[in-house]
Structures are given as structure tokens and as C-alpha cells.
Amino acid sequence: FVCLNPKTQLKILTKEGNSANRGRKILYVQGSAQSILAAERTALNFLGHLTGIATKTHQFVKARGRRRLPMISDTRKTHPLLRDAEKYAVAVGGGSPHRANLKEMAMIKDNHLIALRQTYWSWHDRLIRQVAQLRKKGIPVEIEVQNLDELNAVLWDNPDWIMLDNMPYTKLRQAISLIRQKAPKIKIEVSGGVKLENIPNLARLAIDR
Fold first, then answer.
1. Is the pTM of this model over 0.90?
2. What is the per-residue pLDDT across 170-207, written as a single tens digit (0 to 9) for each?
3. Which pLDDT band, with edges at 50, 70 and 90, does 106 fall under?
4. Which of 51, 142, 144, 168 has the lowest CB atom count within 10 Å?
């Protein structure tokens, strides 16, 4: 509103993070009718999109219960130019935003591992060196695995995080037990197939995110 007309006056009537039921007034706008109507739809689009993210995040946080862990986080798959706003909405909903960019954390995903295997004979030695180089620069490293074989292959690479992606619940428990026994300092993230209905069961596992 103010970008279109600096003379527009705004008053926020509801605190950030509060729930707002139907009919509750959250914002008062006063100014030129032309300016207000020109900005209205864009403002409503932002409001609907971001409060939707905050609300969905809050539902997951509530489903987790009173536990501090696992953190409820987002992904880096955000809309162009809206990343900061969308991650802010996650935080307002009670979540813990994941990395915002590659400087905050390096993610070694399944397609990276496939490329390493096809390019280098001693791909695992190269992976260990790359992880060490990144950590030496102060960049945390997370490696994604999708089964127990991949987990055993990267367990000794000493990443900061291991992501267990799209694993069935029984395999998930085995993988978590293996990490906690052999590399207890590595933090564990579970991704893929995470839904409101299975959050209570996942929250009972020894995972961090």
C-alpha cells in the first residue's frame, strides 16, 4: 500500500503469529481509494499465501506435541523472489526454517552421489575430501540417503547431518539406530512422506529435524 502511495496510513490490528478467526479485523487502511484498490489484490495474495504457510506449519508443530525435537522445517523449494517472506512465515508458524542458501549448508543429494560414482573410480575418497573441504570453510554438510546401503557408504564421511529420505518406517528406525550407535554426533533429518497424521510417530524417534 505504501509503495503505491506513501500517504496511505496503515494500522495493524492483530499481532503477528496470533490466530484470526473469520470476521476478525487484522488491518486498517486509510487513504486514496484509487491507491487502496490498486494494491488490494496483491496485498490479499501475499496475506493468503503467507498465512497459509504459517497455518500449515503451526499444524505440524502442534501435531509434534510439546517436544522440542524434531524441529519442523521447510525446504529450499520456494517461489522465485519470495524465499525470505515464505521462510519468515514458517518461523511465524512456529517452525525452524531450513537453510536459506548454499552458504548456510551444503546438501549432497542422490544425484550428486550418482554423478560421483559415474565420474570417479575412487568416488568415496573424493566425497570424504569434499566434505572435509566444505567443513574447513565453516560450511555445514548434509548428505541425503535413501536406503541402508547408501547410509553405510556415507556414515564415515563425517557430515554434520544425514537426511533419511523417503524411507519406510521400519527402515527408518533401523537407520536411526545405526547412526546413533556408530556416529552419535551426526544430526538426523527425516524428509519425504512427512504428513500430519504420521508426525506423532516420527516425533517419538531420535531425530533432530
1. no
2. 999 999 999 999 999 999 999 999 999 999 999 999 99
3. very high
4. 168
Among 11, 22, 77, 137, which one carries the catalytic annotation? 77
Does residue 11 have an active-site annotation?
Answer: no
The count of other CB atoms within 10 Å of the CB of residue 6 is 9
Respond yes or no: is residue 150 known to be catalytic.
no
Task: Let me know: does 90 contact 111? Beta carbons within 8 Å.
Answer: no
Is-catalytic flag, 41? yes
Among residues 97, 75, 5, 3, the alpha carbon closest in space to that of 46 is found at: 3
> In this structure, what are the phi and psi dihedrals at residue 101, rounded to the nearest 5 degrees?
-160, 180
Beta strands in the chain (DSSP E): 9-12, 27-30, 106-108, 141-145, 161-165, 187-191
The C-alpha cell at 39 is 494494491
Distance CA 134, CA 137 (A): 5
> Which entry of 109, 135, 171, 209 is annotated as an active-site residue?
109
